[in-house]
Design goal:
By secondary structure, this protein is an alpha+beta fold. The protein has helices spanning 8-23, 37-46, 60-64, 67-74, 117-126, 177-183; strands at 29-31, 50-52, 78-84, 88-89, 91-94, 105-109, 111-116, 132-133, 136-137, 151-153, 200-201, 210-213, 219-223, 234-244, 250-254, 260-264, 285-289, 294-297. It is flat, with a radius of gyration of 21 Å.
């Protein structure tokens, strides 16, 4: 349900959203071949996303990466891992009973730990139902409390593929040629993220151009255009972090000296949530990437 505008300003914003949506198809264009640099610049100038089906299908990573290969390359090398109760890293969270800020909304960062790669991969694969691949033997367990297991996600954003995972960098393109030529610059960061179906990224925006490449598995995106920023119920939330209490449980603790973080508090996937105000006017777009697909996500989407 959408409430009616109550002021001239709200009426003007409502009219702007309606006009934009009537004139623009937010669904990303599906390409079967990479664009030329000039074609890519046109998408950038229009702030328009697109998907290239099979755009990375010939990369060595797409052909070779599986659990056995990755462990063979990475072995017991240490990596940074984010740990959360339910896969909700860097997300708005209502503090629970006994936690600091009980009943209040916080922007909560994950517990960061260092773990060997093989152990991490074993853990996230086990959560997907008990898998076996090559020399990685994972027992299939019918764990009634599986839904309560902590979620681990390798999600550092510090150019990790050229640092933390440098031994795997040889399997991907060092840059995307048509993007490098069009933007006249090399990528500032190349990151590798590894998780399972429980890993969730909260609604957010980046101030730069992004190219996502799906190497293994599938990833689903919910996209909202920049003009709909008014729809996401952005609030400034106090920052906090998951830590372990005396019994080893993950709890929320306010960051000492932490500031306020602008945070989108509307979840477009929340089932049964009544959509009122401007969020009721949003038209989120859902896109899924299969192995070898690419997604161009413009700045501020």
């Amino acid at each position: 349900m959408t409430s009616s505008p109550t002021s001239p300003l709200e009426s003007a914003i409502s009219a702007l959203l309606t006009t934009y949506q009537d004139l623009n198809n937010p669904t990303p264009e599906i390409l079967t071949t990479p664009p030329s640099p000039l074609e890519f610049l046109r998408y950038v100038s229009q702030n328009k996303p697109f998907v290239i089906r099979g755009g990375a299908s010939e990369w060595p990573a797409t052909k070779k990466w599986n659990a056995e290969y990755l462990v063979g390359v990475m072995g017991d090398e240490k990596i940074q891992v984010a740990v959360t109760p339910s896969g909700n890293a860097d997300s708005p969270v209502v503090c629970g009973d006994g936690e600091e800020g009980e009943g209040e909304l916080r922007f909560v960062k994950p517990l960061e730990i260092e773990e060997d790669f093989e152990g991490f991969l074993r853990y996230i694969r086990k959560q997907e139902g008990g898998l076996e691949c090559g020399n990685i033997n994972i027992e299939e367990e019918n764990n009634k409390n599986n839904s309560q297991e902590e979620v681990k996600y390798a999600q550092t954003q510090n150019d990790n593929l050229r640092n933390e995972y440098s031994s795997l960098f040889k399997d991907v393109e060092k840059d995307i040629a048509w993007a490098r030529i069009a933007l006249a610059k090399k990528p500032e960061a190349i990151n590798l993220w590894i998780g399972n179906s429980r890993s969730v990224t909260a609604l957010h925006k980046d101030n730069y151009e992004n190219l996502y490449v799906q190497i293994v598995g599938r990833k689903s995106f919910v996209l909202v255009p920049p003009i709909e920023a008014v729809c996401v119920r952005e609030r400034e939330l106090r920052s906090a972090t998951y830590v372990r209490d005396g019994e080893g449980r993950l709890v929320v603790r306010d960051d000492v000296g932490g500031g306020l973080v602008p945070t989108a508090t509307w979840d477009p996937d929340e089932q049964g949530e009544e959509r009122t105000g401007f969020e009721g006017m949003s038209r989120p777009v859902r896109v899924s990437l299969e192995e070898g697909d690419m997604l161009y996500l413009p700045a501020l989407w």
